Amino acid sequence: MILRTFSPIDGSVVVERTLATAGDIEAALARAERAFPVWRQTPLERRLELLSRAVDLFVARKDRIALEITLQMGRPIAHSPGEVRGFEERARRMLELAPAALADVDPGPKPGFRRFMRREPLGLVFVMAPWNYPYLTAVNAIWPALAAGNVVLLKHSSQTPLCAERLKEVLDEAGLPEGTFQYLHLAHEDALVLVRSGRAAFVAFTGSVAGGRAVQEAAGHAFVATNLELGGKDPAYVRADADLAHAVETLVDGACFNAGQSCCGIERIYVHESLFDDFVAGYVELASRYVLGDPRDPATTLGPMVRASAADFARGQVEEAVRQGARALVDPARFPLDRPGSPYMAPQCLVDVTHAMRVMREESFAPIVGIMKVRSDEEAVALMNDSDYGLTAAIFTRDVEAAVAIGDQLATGTVFMNRCDYLDPDLAWVGVKDSGRGVSLSRLAYEQLTRPKSFHLRLAGAGQS
Q1: How many Cβ atoms from other residues are within 10 Å of residue 1's Cβ?
Q2: What is the value of pTM for the model shown?
Q3: Enclosing domain of residue 245
Q4: What residues contact residue 261 under an 8 Å CB cut-off, 6+ apart?
Q5: How many domains in the chain?
Q6: Catalytically active residues, by annotation
């Protein structure tokens, strides 16, 4: 079978590859099994050296990589280089955290004994990466998995297959042993068969809630551990004491960057009644200045969504909300490329929305947002928590203690103050409810990519205890 990647820019075929066969899959698994004993016994210092070299090689290819991101999934070329910078930041920081995270744990002295816990690699880590941030999502799992002594098999999205190939290029050139890192262009069904087989010790999946459920069900057949990074309907709350201009600028970017196709993008905004009118006016004015166009043009600030059906889904949410009483405030006539059946979609801002509307409950994954007026922190918290998702929540305020107090009440994986839509590699990336399970990034990520082994050693001459 042939994999074809169609560019959302103009519908042209940008990649054609043959999908892996059952024989290809078996051969890759056999190579991984041979490579694992070699790689796990490679000293940590050497593993980190090779992985750091691979980062250098990746960054050196930044212009080619940025253009390929744009061609495959439509992000403006003015923004695509940022993914290379983000990749470098996360990869290097995870390598820096590895020695302490993987060090033996000493539980304290006990006369006559030596005791410690050692973190050992799991084996094969199967990474299933999405198209929307094709390198940032992949690096979250691949670099720490390899640093910990695991071997990795990557299945990248059919929308961004070149990303898997570029990662293989730099890791091979850096000198990783054969079979330590591999990729396969796989059909979804074959990927689930691989998970169900139990040949992978761990599966790191980033994608939809439905996809995560399918992976979890397949993994359950062989008790395979998983990390699931799924959807979001992330809220923001603009308090009465917020810096209004900063809140507007940050939240328009948080909703519209990458055409809104971010699991932690802003999709719901709650604004204190004292700032509501000014915030909405500022949001509409700034969103209306976006340039929707060919993402290869450096002047474009809003590219196409990944496919026309995704844009039409979001248009349907907006149209239904308007029929139910909402008002859409951004004039789509300002964006000539925005039309039904096209992946090019104008930003949109809705007011007079309620939580009875799909646009406030379903993940949109588009440059659209609903804005509601609130009278108090308590009302904002209740609305922010009224969701099946819980990935991030952003609070705009000048009061740090208030932000912490509100954050303590939110069912979410990350609480932001005066920012949004950003992953700090020093902090655990987690989701609650339908946003996922498990941890990536931070030193905590190494805990799920390894298993503890306890050493309980009685020393010569020690008495019974």
Answers
A1: 10
A2: 0.97
A3: 234-417
A4: 132, 305, 306, 310, 365, 366
A5: 2
A6: 229, 263
